[in-house]
Amino acid sequence: FYCPDGIQQIPCAPGNYTNTYEQSKCRQCPPGHYNIKPSSTNCSRAQPGHYAPVNNNISRPCPPGTYTNKPAQQSCKTCRPGTYSTQPGTQNCIRCQLGHFCPDPTKLPQPCPAGFYGDIYEQTKCKICPKGYYTIYPRVTYCTKCPIGNSCADPATTPKPCPVGFYNGLFAQTTCRQCKSGWTTNVPGQAECTMEFSLGGSDDGSGVVILLEVLSNLVNNPTIIFDRVHLIVLFTGAEELGLKGAQAFISNHTWKTSIRRFINLDSTGGNGKAILFRAKPSQLVVDYGRVPRPHANVFGDEILQYLGANTDYTQFATKGSLPGYDFAFYLDGYNYHTLLDRPSIVELGALQHLGENTLALSHEILFGRVDLQQPYNISDDDNLIYFDILGRHLVTYKMSTSIIVQAILTGLILFSMINNETIQNNFSDISTNSTSTQMMIETHSQLSNKDDMESMLVHIDTSIKSVPKHPVQFTSENLRTHLEPIILKMIAWEYSYLFQQPINHVSLVILDYPKIIKHAMDMSTIHNKLLRGEYKNPLEFCDDIWLMFNNAQLYNKNTTLINKMCTKLAELFVEYIDPVMQTLGYCCGRQYEYLPQVMLCDGQQQQYCQIELNDNYYYYNNLDPSRLNLSYDKYIFCVKCFNSIKNDSIFVGDDPTQTLVEIPKSLFLSAKNDIKKPEQMIDCIICTRRWHQVCGLHLNEIWSEGFICKTCIHEYNIKRKENPYIASKLPINDLSSRLEQRVNNFLRNKNCQTGHVTIRILSASDKICEIKPQLKKYYSNQLVNNYPYRNKTIFAFQEIDNVDIVFFGMYVQEYDEHCPEPNKRRIYITYFDTVHFFQPKIYRTDIYHEILIGYLDYVKQHGYMYAHMWACPASKDFDYIFHRHPSEQHILKPKRLQDWCKKMLDKAIVERIVINYKDIVQDCLDNQVQTVLDIPYFDHDFWPFMIEDNIEKLNQEEEDRRKQHVEGEQSMIDEEKISDKSEYPVTKDNMNYAVVIVGGISIFATVYWIVSARHWFVGPKRTTKNSFQLSPTFITTSGTTKISPSPNAIHSQL
């Protein structure tokens, strides 16, 4: 209110406020703030996605095309070009995706039409395809080169084959060229013209003659048993009419699947020795070196890349994926396809040379002297460097060898010139062309396994720029072939009927369905999209399947039948889709999400309230982390702690012992702990396939050049840069060396041929355990200020499939001889945690025990006397070290975990490392502990927090009793009885009763009653009140072991 004339108070109008008494006028809400009610004492700030104009009494959502990503804004920002927001109240604009353009920031992205492409994000218009390139599909990121024999005048239509009488021997052409006089093309789509009525002496009379002579020789050879091997001599027709003969055989003939090698004989002239133009895979070139007069040169393969030729060899090698040879005459090429190509121009010596080599190569194959196992992928096999010496010997060596030699020579030149230059090798795709005759050889040998095939491949060490970029494309037929069986299996499942048709929310009387589910999806819609060819890659299909599952789980509660059916159907989908996706070159078809984790409340730092999954909470976004004692980005309060603070402000800080910062409660935002973060997807820089980052095991910090999927690494034989950040390269010290040696010796003694175990100390730092304020106040003159200790982090890794897998982690605190009592010479295992990936499985427990025992042995030798260990498993949805253990990993119950610890300590006793162990309560009873000051006080242990909590309860109860004192004499008597601070003896028999007595030692009794079921205490026997009796074989050492901020410790004599 405000009082302008001193007569009456007038309520402040909306948009104004007063927050103090005796005001003569109201204050206007600052920019970005508002209130909607009169008589307001404060203003609310506009939330992100909203704005509050000056002199306005309401917060308005940002209209489409604008956004605000900060609170308290008086206006919205316009989306930058190439981004958009279609809904009001947007906090961030969405960038326009590849293959789309966004001219209007208020509308959804528009797909690039046919003839256009979008290869970058945030485009306001699409780019037209360059001349000679085309695309008939929308939403593409690149255009395709017009193929040889075609013209592409219109970039939005399919290439047009050159008509008869015209040709085109180059890629990316907009027009075809007319054949010169006397020359023609027999069919449309030709790369070159031929002279009419050529006699074909060399092409392909020479090939027919050679095949007939080779066939005659082989048939009459008594050493060849054709019941065991088969020989096919194929004379293909209509090669000049579009390779129709070869196409017919490789597409339809039943023999095509039995072929293991083929030999193609061709000719572009009639003189000279026939050269080996091409051979895939590279092993065939090595096999060719066994013929008597080899003639080959790698330049032939390189030259054919630019000729634009397309022959029967291409049909068998590319479409049939068959390994084979391509031989051809090449001298006197001016006779090729002319009237001069008569049989008389063919040299008999040329026929003799090719015939002998063909016959010799056939013998090698038929007699099984070469490896007939088909390679994994012959089309992208690594090339060899090869050439013949005087037609007598064939020299071959790997491309990697050539690169090394060239690198050495280049280095010498650069060194001599004192000049730095970069040499880059560019590899091109291989395309071929010519007429041919084939001979294919078939055998009944079994195919080699994958490992055998991989051993045949030649690995090259190459840079990313050297690797060809081949964006993968899928035809509608290919996707339907692979994906339709999956959708049909899902439809056939007996409980899939609820997912087969679109949801009719009107007939089902679920009128809120469209409000909750923004993008409905069902199996019939997915199937129809697949049949219509709307999916461009299998990931789009998977996205729609998971959209259907997510919709069902979002709208239906976990306990409903629909939700359970959805879960089961999703499991079936994963089972069906993963093998198919891996066949298509992807990692999997799953939807990976990072589930929300339990959070800790900042309200009661000594209690650490937990914010469980799906709990509501409040948080403050700290926009200025530079403030003193306020360095975190976010501060979180559970609902209970937030509502328990009755003031309008909350005091927050990193360290409660320092000055806290006052934060208005109005700046806190409400949220729910249910956010699931999807696993990041990354694109392969070669084929553009999308993989889960976790499936590809890729980090940009290691491979900054980009992600290359395993499919491309195998297909192109790429040798990636080695990962320098592996466990074995981390710094090693005496402790890690001893633990690692102990574990690996154990495995060797068990004859385990598994991956090496690496153990490293990931951190070691000096820290201070501060005494908490309530205990310090309660025993003001009897406590030290702090306990210094050394904090260490120990992790164990095992190499599995050439990858370091972490399977064990442990945090320890080491209080040495310089630390005051009672922490002196103690170690405390604050946490240890495992994941069940160690191999072999039967030795997992033994390996965990070996690490722990090895650590106890190490600290024993360094003068420690006692060890404390936490023996309580983590609660549900709460993890110690490894977040979200595998669902199939069994978590031990408290009793089982205690037995597990006993078994480990029993082993340590046998090895004379530990003398004995006992429950911590039993040890306190045995040693007649009288005060909490005699109990070890460890950093972040449950015990210090419980002491603080009990002292607060004690003070509160004493305060309540003082208030009751004035009510009567009986209350005073009761007060005296309860507040008597005489030492109360604690025994097993009266431990529960001691919880009720809250005075003096009762604090100790209360806490120990809570921890008695979980705390282990292992240590030396005490014979008198102030002396210890140690075994003469042991150094007086002590260690402290625990696993989480809870009341458990193990005290062990080492």
TrEMBL record:
SMART domains: BROMO, Ephrin_rec_like, KAT11, TNFR. GO terms for biological process: positive regulation of transcription by RNA polymerase II. Residues 958-979 are annotated as: Disordered. The chain crosses the membrane at residues 991-1011. CDD domains: PHD_CBP_p300 (cd15557). Pfam families: Bromodomain, HAT_KAT11, Peptidase_M28, PHD_P300, RING_CBP-p300. Its EC number is 2.3.1.48. PROSITE patterns: BROMODOMAIN_2, CBP_P300_HAT. This is histone acetyltransferase.
